[in-house]
Automatic annotation (TrEMBL):
Residues 672-686, 739-755 have a biased composition (Basic and acidic residues). It comes from the Eukaryota. InterPro entries: DEAD/DEAH_box_helicase_dom (IPR011545), Helicase_ATP-bd (IPR014001), Helicase_C-like (IPR001650), P-loop_NTPase (IPR027417), RNA-helicase_DEAD-box_CS (IPR000629), SPB4-like_CTE (IPR025313). RNA helicase. PANTHER family: RNA HELICASE. Its EC number is 3.6.4.13. Coiled coil: none annotated. This is ATP-dependent RNA helicase.
């Protein structure tokens, strides 16, 4: 009898499986989490840390691993509403943690709904810029590292085909509006019918950048039953319109309405009043005095960024320089963003493409060399520093004409800015250095010219004319400060009244009736004159030839001096016309003259008076005579055969019988819309049918090709068959008498399989039987005569045959 041991293992059949137990435990935890979320009291919530929130274990572990512990103000108010599934309209200061306020609800809501890869796209996050989209995606990867969701980044500048291949498998997408709409319209595998959440980050910037129509088109593609989260640092009218159309009973979450300032309290804000030509000198001096700082400098255009970067890079201020603007490639922009984030001491010249949402660690100074377009842009720019309750400093450069208006706009947004002065002793002038570099380097001079033009254009297109006054700017001095020899010519600097001056009558000065000599001189100066006007106003009239005297007004009651030379026909230049008040057509065009003539003939039936050579020449022109003839009317015929004019107007009484004009307009638009929709459906059905037909034809071709290949493999290779009509056969004249036949015989049925294509024989043409027989005889004769002669008699016979 075998001994029984106490440590013997049980059989596999008797041991319970651990997998069902784990599944049951996960379901219980999920049910408890759903119940905790339902029990949240959003009105009295006092959550201070992420650990106190009812979050799933993967999200809590990701937050802890990413060192996120305490909640910011926007997160305290926004995350509970997001977890409960409410629409949110959020407004908070820059750097207040809005990214986590919508990423945590996205992960949690999809987790509680047991979202898998088979469910498709669950959340869509829209960002205005590529850099901000990349930053959001990186934060999502950090806090969602323990989840099983698949997330993707869809931005411009990358391969569209690669994105198409992976787009259908994504659960969460972070994207820019333009590329997202492109995929919705062109990618067949992309489906958004099952979308649960839509997030719009920096919504005001999305609207300002011209994406309003794009966002509207994206929203139309999405299902109506969804949760929408809209976050922005500033609330504008466009954002309110978007919220009204996209959100359903939203919860308004704001954390800075009651604050004394719209900017962080740890931000020190100052401004400097400096003339436009001295801005680059002060910027150079500032960089030389802060070599151990991390500085971000904002310009109004990308061409200014490039010029200042190239110029300062040659002069070497002693601090690493970088530049970033919207015309760079996506890989370059991403590389520069990562480098600036990783460095401790550097200076980045940039445009407003980095003014929103980007989190650059430990930025010490934000310098706004060009005045922002509005107070909201100022708030976003200075928000790149003093993030997450850190210290920061910002300096705004204002031209004297911009000071009053811009300070008023900032006060309306509760932004307090203190004025500071520049120490003149520490200020260095780089004007001579820039001039030398522009003289030696034509490319740098070209960049300077483009920078000047782009700055002037950016000031001109600003809507707030109380702040931006183009006429008050010293543009000549500003061009000299850039190192340029002179201000580049810009068309729109001539003034808005240039067109009216150009179209003004020539005698505007004389007919004005003003006695003031200054006013008359001013009008004379501004009037646009032809070359003849300038010629007649010359003082040295005696230098002209004799023929000029025939055109000069002698001031005798408006009569034109008639100077006739005896030898007029021998003059080198002579006037062949006689000018008078009655018949002069100098002040009129030839078309007007012909119109008057036709009017006299039609109305007064007066005889046509030809009193000048010019009129006689005009009347000889067939092209001009066409205007005197009756061209008739163009008629169209209705279904009953009645003629109507092309532009025939409807009777007013009949028009009023059908009802008022607005109702008729509405009916017409409704009918046209219905017609277009019907035509659209018909076109789509026709396109589908055509596509299906092409697909069927392609399948039929592939099927026939496969069958032919099988037959060829079974029947073997092609064989050579001799032509029995000729005597020579294959051996004598293989070039003509043999063809490669592709006919084969089916082994099973014994039937003949026709060849795909058989070459036409030399005698198979459109000729008749008689002609073919002649060709046949000639061919036989040639075969006979062209044989090798064996005897002398044969040689003589062949020679006589050749000679004819």
């Amino acid at each position: 009898m075998a001994p029984v041991t106490t440590g013997q293992k049980k059989s596999p059949k008797s041991r319970p499986s651990a997998r069902p137990l784990k599944r049951k435990r996960d379901e219980e935890d999920l049910d408890n989490l759903i119940q905790q979320v339902q029990d949240i009291n959003v009105r009295e919530s006092d959550y201070d840390t992420f650990a106190r929130l009812p979050l799933s274990q993967p999200t809590a572990s990701g937050l802890e691993a990413s060192h996120f512990k305490n909640l910011t103000d926007i997160q305290k108010k926004g995350i509970p509403h997001g977890l409960k599934g409410s629409d949110i309209l959020g407004a908070a200061k820059t750097g207040s943690g809005k990214t986590l306020a919508f990423l945590v609800p996205v992960l949690e809501n999809l987790y509680r709904k047991r979202w898998t890869d088979l469910d498709g796209l669950g959340a869509l996050i829209l960002s205005p810029t590529r850099e901000l989209a990349i930053q959001i995606f990186e934060v999502l990867r950090k806090i969602g590292r323990y989840h099983t969701f698949s997330a993707g980044l869809v931005i411009g500048g990358k391969s569209l085909q690669e994105e198409r291949e992976r787009l259908g498998r994504m659960n969460i997408l972070v994207c820019t509006p333009g590329r997202m709409l492109q995929h919705m319209d062109q990618t067949a595998a992309f489906e958004s019918d099952n979308l649960q959440m839509l997030v719009l980050d920096e919504a005001d910037r999305i609207m300002d950048m011209g994406f309003q129509s794009t966002v509207d088109a994206i929203v139309e593609h999405l299902p109506k039953e969804r949760q929408t989260l809209l976050f922005s640092a500033t609330q504008t009218k466009k954002v309110s319109d978007l919220a009204r159309l996209s959100l359903r009973d939203p919860e308004y979450v704001s954390v800075h309405e009651a604050a004394s300032s719209a900017t962080p309290s740890t931000l020190q804000q100052n401004y400097i009043v400096t003339p436009l030509p001295e801005k680059l000198d002060i910027l150079w001096s500032f960089l030389r005095a802060n070599l151990k700082s991390k500085i971000l400098v904002f310009f109004s255009s990308g061409k200014q960024v490039r010029f200042v970067y190239e110029a300062f890079r040659h002069m070497q201020p002693g601090i690493p320089l970088m530049h970033l603007h919207g015309r760079q490639k996506q890989t370059v922009r991403l590389d520069i963003t990562n480098k600036f984030s990783a460095t401790k001491n550097s200076c980045l010249f940039a445009t407003d493409v980095v003014a929103r949402g980007l989190d650059f660690p430990a930025v010490d100074w934000v310098i706004q060399l060009d005045c922002p377009e509005d107070a909201d842009t100022y708030i976003h720019r200075v928000g790149r520093t003093a993030r997450y309750e850190r210290d920061g400093r910002a300096v705004l450069f204002l031209e004297p004409s911009e000071e009053e208006g811009m300070l008023k706009r900032l006060e309306q947004k509760r932004v307090v800015v203190e004025k500071i002065n520049v120490r003149q002793k520490k200020q260095q002038s780089i004007k001579n250095q820039l001039q030398n570099m522009c003289f030696k380097d034509p490319e740098l001079k070209y960049l300077g010219q483009k920078a000047f033009i782009s700055y002037v254009r950016s000031i001109r297109i600003q809507q707030d004319k109380e702040v931006f006054k183009l006429n008050d700017l010293p543009l000549e001095e500003f061009s000299a400060s850039l190192g340029l020899p002179g201000a580049p010519k810009i068309k729109f600097l001539k003034g808005d009244n240039a067109k009216s001056l150009k179209n003004a009558p020539r005698q505007a000065v004389s007919s004005s009736g003003e006695d003031d000599s200054d006013t008359e001189a001013k009008l004379r100066k501004n009037a646009v004159k032809t070359k003849y006007d300038r010629m007649f106003e010359r003082t040295n009239q005696d230098v002209f030839a004799d023929h000029y005297a025939k055109l000069v007004d002698d001031g005798n009651n408006g009569e034109v001096k008639k100077t006739q030379n005896v030898n007029e026909e021998n003059d080198f230049l002579s006037v062949k016309r006689r000018l008078s008040d009655a018949s002069s057509i100098d002040g009129e065009s030839s078309e007007n003259a012909m119109t008057q003539t036709s009017g006299q003939r039609k109305n007064a039936m007066a005889p046509l008076v030809v009193d000048s050579k010019r009129k006689e020449k005009l009347l000889k022109s067939k092209k001009k005579l066409l205007k005197l003839k009756d061209k008739g009317k163009k008629l169209v015929y209705d279904s009953e055969g009645n003629p109507h004019e092309v532009y025939e107007l409807e009777d007013e009484a009949q028009f009023k019988q059908r009802g008022p004009a607005p109702s008729q307009q509405a009916k017409f638009l409704a009918a046209e819309q219905e017609r277009l929709q019907t035509a659209d459906l018909a076109d789509k059905q026709a396109a589908k049918a055509k596509k299906k037909e092409k697909r069927e034809k392609r399948k039929a071709r592939e099927r026939n090709a496969a069958e032919s290949e099988e037959l060829e493999e079974g029947a073997g290779a092609a064989i050579l068959v001799p032509d029995e009509e000729f005597e020579g056969g294959v051996g004598e004249d293989a070039g003509f008498d043999a063809i490669a036949r592709e006919d084969a015989v089916d082994e099973e049925g014994g039937r003949e399989v026709p060849a795909k294509k058989r070459r036409k024989k030399w005698f198979e043409d459109d000729l008749g039987d008689e002609t073919q027989s002649k060709h046949h005889k000639r061919r036989k004769h040639d075969d006979v005569t062209m044989q090798e002669p064996e005897t002398l008699e044969d040689l003589e016979a062949m020679a006589s045959g050749l000679l004819g």
